[in-house]
Amino acid sequence: MLKLSSIYIKGFKSFAMPTKFDVSAGITAVVGPNGSGKSNVVDAIRWLFGEQSMKNIRADNREDVIFNGSEKFPPSNSAEVRLVFESQEGSFSIAREVSRDGLSQYRVNDRPGRLKDIKELFQGTGVGMDIYSIVGQGQVDKVVSASPYELRALIEEAAGTAIYKERKKEALGKLASTEENLNRLEDIIFELGKQRKSLYLKAKRAEKYLEYTQKTKELKGLFFGNIARIEEETLFTHQGEFERIREELKELQKKLVEAESNWSTLRSEFSEVDKEIEGFTQLLEEYKKRQNDLLELKEIYARRLGERENRLIEVSTRIDSLKNEIDELEKRKDEIKLIIDSLNQQVYEEEKLLTSLEEKRDSLVRNYSSREREWLKLQESFDSTQKRLSKIENELERLENNREDTSKRLRLIQTQLQSKRERFETLKEEIESLAKQGKESSDRQKEVEANIRAAKDRITELDTSLEKARESLTQEQNELKRSQMERTLLEKQQHEYQGFSKTVREVFNRRDSFNGLRDVVANIVDVPQPFETAVTILLGSRMQDIVVDDAVTAKRIVEFLKTYKIGRATLLPIDMIEGSFSRYSKIEKHPGFIGYAAKLIEVPEGFEKLPSYLFGNSVVTRSLDDAIEMRREFGFSGRMVSIDGQLVSGGGSITGGFIDDEARTDLLSRKRRIAELSEREVELEKNIALREKEILRLKDDITEVRGYYKVLQEELNELASKGAAINRMIHELLKSAQEVEDEIVELVKLETEYSRRLQESYLKKESLVNEQSALKIEKAKLEESVEAESEELKRQKKVLEELQDSIVDSKLRLSTLYEKQEQYSKEHASILEKKRFDQENVNLLSREMQEVEEETERLRRQVADQEREITSVKRETEDLFSSIRYQREGKEQRLNALQEAEDMINELKEKREKKRDRSHQLEMLIQESQMKLTRIREEIENSGENTADIPVLSEDKLREVKVELDDYENKLKFLGSVDLDAIEEYGVVDREYQELNNQKADLEDARQKLIELIEKTDTKAKTIFMETFDRINKNFASYIDEIFEGGEGDIKIIPGDDLLETGLEITVRRPGRKIQKLQLLSGGEKALVGIALIFSLLSIKPSPFYVLDEVDAPLDDFNAERFRVLLKKHAFDTQFLVVTHNKLVMEVANVLHGVTMTDGLSRVIPVELQSVESITG
Questions:
Q1: 617 touches 598 (CB < 8 A)
Q2: CB 1097 within 8 Å of CB 139
Q3: Can you give the pTM of this predicted structure?
Q4: Helix, coil or strand: residue 359
C-alpha cells in the first residue's frame, strides 16, 4: 500500500530554510498561530502536483512561491518541494523546483521528469484529486454552498463519467455537423428535384414521340408496302395489256400496208381504161390522197389531244392531292383548335384551382396564427400557474422552517435566561470589539461585492459577445459551405455544358481535336444582370452557337458532326462573321431607351465582331409600351426587347408572355453566378479568419476575467464566512444581554410574539394549501388545453405543408400547359400559312386546267371536223365508184375488188384507231400508277423500314392498319414539338439526383448511428452515475447517522427531463426534527454535512493520504468531537495531514508539528500536547 513518508520544503514561500515534516501512518497535525505559515504546507503539496491556478495557492505569479526575503534573510533563488513515499516495492520520491530565472522542472527519484510522468505514476490512486485528497481553507464551505449542478459535478467526478460527457459532446458536435450537411443536401435535392421533375415530363414526351415515331414507321412500312405491292400488280397488268395492244397494232399496220399495196395494184389495172375511167381514177386518187391527208391531220390532232388529256389528268391529280392536303390541314386546324380550347380550359381550371389553393392556404395561415396566439396565451397562463404553485410550495416550506425555528427560539429563551445574566458585562465588551471587526469586514465585503458585480457584468458582456461571434462564425461557415457546394455544382454544369444541346456537348467533349475551338456564345458574352433576360430573348437559340477561330476549324467540326451523325450546329468563325451596327439617334432620346444590345454586353479580347453580328442594332427598352411607342413614332425597324423579355421583331410582330426565372437566364447567368460565389467565398474566408481571431481574443478575455472573478468570489466567501461568524456572535451576545436585561417581562413578550407568529403561520399555511389545491386543478385544465391546442396546431401545420406541396404541383402543371399552348399556337399559324400556299397552287392549277380543257375541247372539235370531212370524202368516193360502175359495166368485177380492198383498208384503219385509243388509255393508266408508286416509295424510304419481308395483308386488315396509322399520326401531332435532348439531360440530372439521395441516405444513417451512440453513452453514463450515486448516498446516510447520532441524510436527484443534466440537493433530518434542506442548517452543521460528503466521496475513490486545511474552523467543541471521531475511525485506512487550531483534533493526532514564524521565516518546532494551548494562543 502506498504511504506518504515525509515532506521536504526549501525556499517555498515563508519556508526559506530546508524544512522536513515526518508524516505518521495515521493522523499528522500541523498547528500554530495565525500567519505562521501552516497553510503554506498545503500550498506546497498542491504546487507539487501541478496546480495551475496561482490563486488556489494564494499567489499572484510564479515568483510569489519563492521566498521573497525578510529584514534578516535575503530572498531565495529557488523553491523546492519533495514528497517521499513508501510502497511494497520500496521508497521513491517526487519533487518540483522553480528558480527566479524561470527554470522549472519535475523530478522522480531525483531524475528529471514531467508532470505527466507524476500523474501517470499516481494514476488510479486518487492522489492529487481536487477537493478529495487536498481540502483547502473554505473548500468545505464551497461544498456545502455549492449549487445543485456543482454538487452533481462532485458525484460525476467521483464516478468518472466525464469521459462519457466528452464523448457525448463530441458526438453531438458530429451530429450537428451531420444534420447541417443533411439540411444543406436536402436544399440542393429540393432544387434539383424541381429541375428533374420538369425534365421528367419533357423526357417522357420525347420517349412517347420516339415510340410513336417508331410505330408510325413500322405501320407506314407495312401499309405502303402492301399498297406498293397492289399498285405494282396493277401496273404489271396494264403494262402487259399495253404490250399486247402494241403487238396487235403492229399486225394491223402490216395488214394495212398489204391492203394498200393490193389496192395500188388494182388501181394500176385500171390505168389502161378509157380516159373517162382514167379521169374517174385520177379523181379517185385525189379523193384517196385527200382522205389520207385528212387522216394524218386527224392523227396529229388526236396525238395533241392525248397530250392535253395527259396534262389534264396530271393537273387534276395534283389539284386533288392539294385539295386532300388542304382538307387534312383543315382537319388538323380544327383538331388544334379543339386542343387549344381544351388547353385554355385546363389553364383556366388550373389557375382557378391555384387561386383557390392559395386562398385556402392564406385562410389556413390566418387561422393558424390565431390559434397560435391562443396557444401562447394558454401557455402563459399555464406558466404563470406553475410559477405560482412553485412559489406557494417554497412559501409553505419557509413557513414550516420558520415555525420550527420559532419553537426552537422559545425553548432557548426558557432554558438560557439564567446563564445569559451572569455573562452580561463580559458580553458587552466582546460586542464592542466584534462590532468594530464586523464593520471593517462589511466595508471590505461591499467593496468586493461591487468588484464581483462588475466582473459578472463583464463576463456576461464577454459571453454575449462570444456567443454572437460564434453565431456569426457558424452562419458564415454554413454560408461558405453552401456557396462552395452551389459553385461546384455550377462549375460542373458549365464544364459538362449541361443545358446545351447534345451536339454542343459532343463537340466540346472532343475539344482537344479542334485547335481553333473557343466556346459557345452564352459562355463568351458578359451580360450585366439587369439585362440578362432581354439578351436571352434576343439571342434565343444563338446562345448555343459555337465560336471558332476560323472557317477551317468550323469545316472540321461540320465534317465531324456529319461523319458521326451527331446532329447539326451553328458555327461562328471569327475570320468570316461580319455584323452590321448603326445608331438611330431619334430613339436614343426616348425616355424608354436603355441602350443597344451590342453595346450593353462585354466580350473578351479577340471577339469584338460578335456583338454586332449577334445583335445588329437591336435595342433594349424599359417596357413593351416604350418599344411600341418607338416603332410607331420613329419607324424604327430593328428588333426591340423590354427588360422583362417582351420582344418586338423587325417585321412588327410581338412575342411575349411569362418567362420562368430559371429558364430565361440559366445559361447566361451561370458564369456570373460562379464569379459572384467565388468572390463571396473569399470574403467569407476573410471574415471567418477575423471571427476566429475575435473568438480567441474573447476566450482569453473571459478566462482572465473569470480567474479574477474566482479570486474575488473566494475572498467574498472568506469575508462572508467571517462576517457571518461575527454577526452571529454579536447577535447571540445582544440577544443574551437583552434577555438578561428584560428578564421575564421580555420573555413573556417574546413568547406571546412567537405564539402569535406560530398562529399566523398556521393560518397562512391553511390559506396557501387551499390556494395550492385550486391552482393544481387549474393547472391540470390548462395543461389539457395547451396539449389540445398543440395537437391542433400540429395538424394545421401538416395541412399547410400538404397544401403548399399542392400549390407547387399546380404551378408546375400550369407551366407545362403554357408551354403546350405556345407550341400548338405556333403549329396553328404554320397550318394556316401552309393552307394558304396550297390554295394558291390550287387556284393556279385550276386556271391551267381550264385552259387545258378549253384547248382539249378545241382539239376534239377539230378531230370531229376531220372525221366529218373524211366521211364526206368517203361518200363522194362511193358516188364516184357508182358512176364508174354505170359507165364501165365490163370492169365491174375489178371495181368490186377495188371496193373490197378499199373497205378492208378502211376497216383496218378503224381497228387501228381503236387500238391506238386503248393504247393511249393504258399509257395514261400506267403513268398514273407510276406516279402513285413514286409517292409510295418516297413514303417507304422516309419511314426507313425494310419492305422485303413485309407480310401480305387482306383489304380488311389493310384498312385496320390505315386506321391505326392515322391514330399514331394524330398522337404525334397532339404531342407537338418535343426536345429529344431532354431524355439524355434527364438521365444526367436523375443520376445526380440519385447520387445525392444516396449521400442523403448515408448521412441519415450516420445521423442515426450518432443518435444511437449518444443514447448508448447516456445509458452507460447513467448506469455508472447511478451506481456511484447510490454508493455515495448510502455512505453519506451512514456518516450523517454517525455524526448526528441517529440523524438521517439523503442526496436527492432533482426531477428533470434528463437524468444526466439535473441537479442534486442534500436534505438532513436531525433526531426529533423534520427534514431540512442543507441551506437551512447552521454553519457548524453545514460544515459537518460537508465533511460527511467528502468522507463519502473518499470511500468511492480513496487516496493514500489526505490534506485537510482548517476544515474544522466552523465547528464548536461538540461538533469538533464528532469530527475527531470520524478522523480516528478512518485513520486506520489512510493518512491524514490536518492543519488545525482545535485541541480535540490535536488530541487524536499521532504526530504534531508546530509551525511558528520568527524574523519572517516559518520554522517547525517540536510540540507536546500539553503546550498546544500556548502555541495556538
A1: yes
A2: no
A3: 0.41
A4: helix
Backbone torsions φ then ψ of 60, nearest 5 degrees: -95, -35
Rounded to whole angstroms, the Cα distance separating 67 from 990 reads 78
CB 1074 within 8 A of CB 1065: no
Give me the long-range contacts of 405-414 (CB less than 8 A, separation at least 24): 406/754, 406/757, 406/758, 406/761, 407/754, 407/758, 409/750, 409/754, 410/750, 410/751, 410/754, 413/739, 413/747, 413/750, 413/751, 414/747
Q: Where are the beta strands (DSSP E) in 88-216?
A: 90-99, 104-108, 111-113, 134-135
- Quickly count: other Cβ atoms within 10 Å of residue 123's Cβ: 10
| Residues 94, 83 contacting (CB under 8 angstroms) | yes
614-634 pLDDT per residue, tens? 888 899 999 999 999 888 888
| Phi, psi for residue 1159 in degrees, rounded to 5 | 55, 35
Q: DSSP for 89-108, please give it.
A: TEEEEEEEEEETTS-EEEEE
Burial of 471 (0-12, 13-18, 19+ CB in 10 A): exposed
User: Mind giving me the DSSP string for 489-551?
Assistant: HHHHHHHTTTTS-HHHHHHHHTGGG-TTEEEEHHHH-B--GGGHHHHHHHHGGGGGPEEESSH
Spatial separation of the C-alpha atoms in residues 545 and 523, rounded to whole Å:
10
Contact 1025, 157 (CB under 8 A): no
At 154, the amino acid letter reads: L
Strand 27-31 relative to strand 1151-1158, pairing: parallel
Is the predicted pLDDT of residue 699 greater than 80, yes or no? yes
Residue 133 phi, psi dihedral angles, 5° rounding? -75, -30
Which helix (H) or strand (E) is 1068 found in, with range? strand 1064-1069
d(CA 204, CA 210): 10
Q: Quote the pLDDT of residue 662.
A: 47
Closest CA to 497 of 489, 505, 506, 486: 505
The C-alpha cell that represents 1080 in the structure block: 437551512
Q: How far is CA 531 from the centre of its chain?
A: 29
Q: How far is CA 984 from CA 20, 332, 409, 524, 561, in A?
A: 89, 31, 94, 25, 18
pLDDT in tens, 832-866: 787 788 778 777 877 777 777 777 777 777 767 76
Q: Which of 1106, 1076, 1157, 1176 is nearest to 24 (CA)?
A: 1106
Rounded to whole angstroms, how far apart are CA atoms 605 and 982?
34
Radius of gyration of the chain (CA): 59
Alpha-carbon gap, residue 772 to 721, rounded angstroms: 37
Tens-digit pLDDT profile for residues 782-831: 778 878 877 877 787 788 778 877 877 777 777 777 777 777 777 777 77
Give the span between the Cα atoms of 134 and 1106, in whole angstroms.
Answer: 6
The C-alpha atoms of residue 828 and residue 973 are separated, in whole angstroms, by 11
Helices (H), 1066-1150: 1083-1100, 1117-1130, 1143-1147
For 722-741, write each residue's pLDDT tens digit: 676 677 667 666 665 665 56
Residue with cell 394558454: 378
Using the structure block, give the residue that is written with the C-alpha cell 454517525. 1042
Bridge partners of residue 9, in order along the sequence:
19, 81
CA-to-CA dists, residue 914 to 302, 718, 870, angstroms? 12, 146, 17
1131-1144, pLDDT tens digit by residue?
A: 777 888 889 888 88
SS3 296: helix
CA distance 331 to 398: 97
Task: Say which amino acid occupies 376.
Answer: L
The packing angle between helices 981-1043 and 162-269, to 10°, is 170
C-alpha angle 11-17-21 in degrees, rounded to nearest 5:
95
CA distance 1107 to 45: 9
